[in-house]
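Summary for the steering committee. One of the milestones for this cycle was to obtain a three-dimensional model of the protein with zinc ion bound, which we needed before selecting residues for the alanine scan. The sequence and ligand used are listed below.
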Amino acid sequence: MYHQTEEAPPKGAPMRGLVVAPETLRRHMGALARLGYRGLSMSGLEPYLRGEKRGKVFGITFDDGYENNLIHALPVLTHFGFSSTCYVVAGMVGQTNRWDAEKGIAQIPLMDAEQLQSWVNAGQEVGSHTVSHAMLATLNAEQQAAEIQQSKVMLESMVQQPGGVRHFCYPYGSLNEASVTAVRTAGYATATTTERGRVVLNGALDVLRLPRVLVSRTTAWPQLVWKCMTAYEDERSSRYAK
Ligand SMILES: [Zn+2]
């Protein structure tokens, strides 16, 4: 789970930890590539999630749709032949992360429709992150369904992508039963949370509540390898908390 790919903002800037330097991303991808792993978008991961394919793969996601991912992450992904999914806030395409403004978080450009198409044409994927970066669990079922369905329709009208927009990410990791029902009804194939952990193929796997491994500015490549190859993250997941 990545957010922004950019040089670090000044010390003390809120949410600075979610800005990963391009060189750090390159080291992360390089380390996993050297170990024989291939980075995939959520669509690329689907057959592995269904147990139809086996192999050394990991999913790469970028939340929010920042332009700096097109500028800095795309060349890295292209270099390694990896694909990824960028979860876009459908109602803020071409704007900035306005949902963060009142928390004093720096306003950063988000990709516009043309840039999203360039992202897709370069082999990457667009997923949905609602219309307004909504905190879904605070909304009623009808409002949630609107955020979840409309964002899919809006993004599909903006971006031509094989199979349409099939993957969803819950903003702030906020969800409840109504969110999951709406995601299923809207026809998404997968949905990711901010729950920590790796996806384990067992009877309990819920593809509409997938855990992820957080990657921050200070995550060094050996640490990322550790997070991906060991049960470290799984053990920190609240799913296993007593
Ligand atoms: Zn987000």
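Key point for the committee: The two ends are 25 Å apart (CA to CA).
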